[in-house]
TrEMBL record:
Lineage top rank: taxon: Bacteria
GO cellular component annotations of the record: cytosol
Pfam families named among the record's database cross-references: Hydrolase_3 (PF08282)
Origin organism lineage: Bacteria, Pseudomonadati, Pseudomonadota, Gammaproteobacteria, Alteromonadales
Species for this entry: Thalassotalea euphylliae
Listed name of the protein: HAD family phosphatase
Entry's Gene Ontology molecular function annotations: magnesium ion binding; phosphatase activity
Gene3D superfamilies from the UniProt entry: 3.30.1240.10, HAD superfamily/HAD-like
PROSITE patterns assigned: COF_2
InterPro entries registered for this protein in UniProt: HAD-like_sf, HAD_sf
Length: 282
């Protein structure tokens, strides 16, 4: 393990799912106390997640992350102090609709997510085709500031952030293969909560966590980056970090690329490491 001991002003960046969060998708009491200790020592930290701001809000609500948050794998950065988003490589309306056409199937309907100039969320969709989509739409309908609109109303004066879909595993895997053939798009996919279903999330290929984290480092004047992650969408962070740590549960190639492997995400692995790394006192 090689650690830059000369760094005095690091930026610490956490992935959420399978990294900082436990298996209940929560910040444990131990982790919350550790984050407060980082605050007490003036150590800068934030999150960089594949989740949207909508999806992340419930799981981080127990703690105030005061620095800008990186969402949708770097497409969006939210500044909580200024209450505004900045955007990095959004999709055009034509690119979004082309992706919808590629992904759609008789069993699944893509959802297109966008923000208008006032940061109001618009989600466009076609005819729902499975129960997972119906459940998702019901949850979205209960969120403040979200407009659910027919796909035909997609228009060009919006920031199109990503296209998501949930459906039978074979359908999603086929969509993933088609997206992989598009040079301007990148897809991430995983197991859904529904048995034999998967989710897929698609955004512009030029957007990634690493570039967003590097931009934030420069903005804050940090002298190093320490990051934590477990999966494919964390690779770009690992590539630009001075130190990168993978929890025990991370994918094999992420662990191979890490500075060191730390404890399991459901055993407060990140928080326990932070307490030792920064000699946090309580």
């Amino acid at each position: 393990m090689i650690i830059n001991l000369r760094a005095t002003n690091p930026l610490v960046v956490f992935d959420l799912d399978q990294t900082l969060l436990n298996k209940q998708s929560q910040l444990s009491a131990y982790t919350l106390a550790t984050l407060r200790a980082l605050d007490s020592q003036g150590i800068q930290y934030t999150i960089a997640t594949g989740r949207s701001d909508l999806s992340a809000a419930p799981v981080i609500k127990e703690h105030t992350f005061s620095l800008p948050h990186i969402y949708t794998n770097g497409v969006l950065t939210w500044c909580p102090n200024e209450k505004r988003f900045s955007f990095n490589h959004c999709l055009s309306v034509d690119e979004s609709l082309a992706a919808v056409e590629i992904m759609a199937s008789p069993q699944s309907t893509p959802f297109v997510s966008a923000l208008d100039k006032d940061a109001r969320r618009c989600i466009f969709h076609g005819i729902l085709k499975n129960k997972a989509e119906q459940s998702l739409l019901q949850r979205l309908s209960q969120k403040d500031g979200v407009s659910l609109l027919p796909i035909e109303q997609c228009k060009g004066d919006l920031h199109f952030t990503n296209i998501s879909m949930v459906g039978p595993s074979d359908v999603v895997k086929e969509a993933n293969g088609k997206i992989s053939a598009q040079a301007n798009l990148v897809a991430y996919s995983g197991q859904a909560l529904v048995a034999d279903y998967r989710w897929i999330d698609v955004h512009h290929a030029a957007a990634n966590k690493g570039s967003a984290v590097l931009a934030l480092k420069n903005q804050l004047g940090a002298d190093s980056i320490i990051c934590f992650g477990d999966s494919d969408n964390d690779t770009s962070m690992f590539e630009i970090a001075d130190e990168c740590y993978a929890p025990e549960n991370a994918k094999a190639h992420i662990k191979a690329a890490s500075t060191a492997i730390i404890g399991h995400h459901d055993e407060d692995g990140v928080a326990k490491f932070l307490r030792k790394r920064f000699s946090l006192s309580f």
